[in-house]
Every structure is written in C-alpha cells, then in structure tokens.
TrEMBL record:
This is Oxidoreductase, short chain dehydrogenase/reductase family protein. GO terms for molecular function: oxidoreductase activity. Pfam families: adh_short_C2 (PF13561). Keywords: Oxidoreductase. Gene3D superfamilies: NAD(P)-binding Rossmann-like Domain. PANTHER family: DIHYDROANTICAPSIN 7-DEHYDROGENASE. Belongs to the short-chain dehydrogenases/reductases (SDR) family.
Length: 253
C-alpha cells in the first residue's frame, strides 16, 4: 500500500486518465477527493471504489472557478486532515485550431481550464503543504503538446507549455520545503476527450497528423496512471521538476 493514510486530490476525474488515476490511488490505500463537473460520474466512481483499501470522495465542480479550487483543497484537508498529493489532470482541447483561426472566446475557454485552474490549485495546495512537516507532491498532466509545436492547436499548445514551465518553477522554488512537482506529457491516449471536439480545424488537423507515425497505437489510461503514481510515491523521491514523456515513442521521430 504505497499511499495508505495519504490524502490525494485528482481533478478531471470523471473519465479517462483522471478516473483511472483516482481508482489506482484508492487501490493503494489513499483517501481520494475526485473533482469534475459531472457529479453523476463521480458518484459512479465512488461506488466502484467500494471494497478497495482506500476511499473516494466526490467534489463536483468546475476547476476553472475560484470557489471550486479553494473548496476542493479545503474539503480534502477537512476530511483527511492534510493533502499529500495533488494531480492536476483536468484539461480540454482546442479543436486543433492554428493561430489564424483562434478567437478570444476559445482562448478564455481553454486557458481557464488548462492553465488557470491548475495554477491556482497548485497555489492552494502548496499553501497547505507548507504547513505540513512532510511537505507534499504535485503531479501535473500536460501533453507532448507542451514539449513541441506540432501536436495540437495554438492555444492548447501554449497552455501545456505553460504547465511545463509552472512545474519546473514550483519544483525549484519549494524543493527545500519537501514539496516536489513533476509533469507527465502523454501522447495520444485512448479516452473520450476527442468526443467534445465538434468544430475541428481541418487545416490544423492535417498538419498535426502529417508528422505522426501511423504505426504507433494510442496509449492506455493505465500507462498514464502508472506514471502518476510513480511520481507521487517515494519511489521517485529524488525526481523533482521532471518532464516525463509517455507517448510510445511518438516524440522520438
């Protein structure tokens, strides 16, 4: 039980990578506060976790809202007495729109979820972790769109590059306070995230697909979950400010 008696917050936990990460933390003994807009999905997740070593507690809400960001960390501390791990997983895509096709509306929509939410959640979590003798651990989920410019639209790419930068800055600033911060950059993962993309830029999509190796199959949510639990555990105690690319070799070409 790597996370017995640990308190974990996972955002974007209603589906995909976040859902799997939350369940795996619970299997390892953690009390896991799960955050997402779809309350019914969180209740399903709570029920699925019954019988596991740990426990899942839903906290429905929009991660781009200040009251939700503050409330989810306060709720975790109230229920568990502390916060050991924050996993900033919530994120949305930008329809592969290159810079000539972006709008202010799309900019605000993407940045509020992909950047403002994780940034302010990190601020709130670090403020609590500074009070704790054992510090804490932050795992950010970015994308290979945060390490290069050919895998998404302009705004998504900017948001994920920013998360990589915030990760490194947070790791450096608080390393002597026993607070670690690392980031995972997945490649294509088999989730439902593309289902919400209704107005794809055909030009942007063609440019993104042009550089992909068609022989590489999408990753699985368990691939990302395994990486997240590793970075949150003592197994990676000397890993801080790292950018862990989990993409099956897509970035190697």
């Amino acid at each position: 039980m790597r996370f017995k008696n640990k308190v974990v917050v996972v955002t974007g936990a209603s589906s995909g990578m976040g859902r799997k990460i939350a369940l795996d933390f619970a299997k390892e003994g953690a009390l896991v506060v799960v955050v997402a807009r779809r309350a019914e999905r969180l209740e399903e997740l709570k029920n699925e976790a019954k019988g596991l070593e740990g426990k899942i507690l839903p906290y429905p809400g929009d991660i781009s809202k200040d009251e939700v960001i503050e409330g989810m960390i306060d709720f975790a501390v109230k229920e568990g007495g502390k916060i050991d791990v924050l996993v900033n997983n919530a994120g949305i895509m930008d329809e592969f729109k290159p810079v000539a096709e972006i709008t202010r509306e799309l900019y605000e929509k993407i940045l509020n979820v992909n950047l403002y939410g994780p940034l302010m959640a990190t601020k709130k979590a670090v403020s609590e972790m500074l009070k704790q003798a054992d510090g804490g651990n932050i795992v950010n989920i970015a994308s290979i769109g945060g390490t290069n410019g050919a895998r998404a639209g302009a705004i998504y790419t900017a948001s994920k590059h920013a998360i990589v930068g915030i990760t490194k800055n947070t790791a450096y600033m608080y390393t002597h306070k026993k607070i670690r911060c690392n980031v995972i950059c997945p490649g294509g993962v088999d989730t439902e995230v593309m289902d919400s993309q209704k107005n794809l830029s055909q030009f942007g999509l063609e440019r993104v697909m042009a550089g992909l190796d068609s022989t590489i199959t999408p990753g699985k949510v368990e691939d990302i979950s395994a990486a997240a639990l590793f970075l949150a555990s003592d197994e990676s105690k000397f890993t801080n400010g790292a950018v862990l690319v989990v993409d099956g070799g897509v970035s190697a070409n």
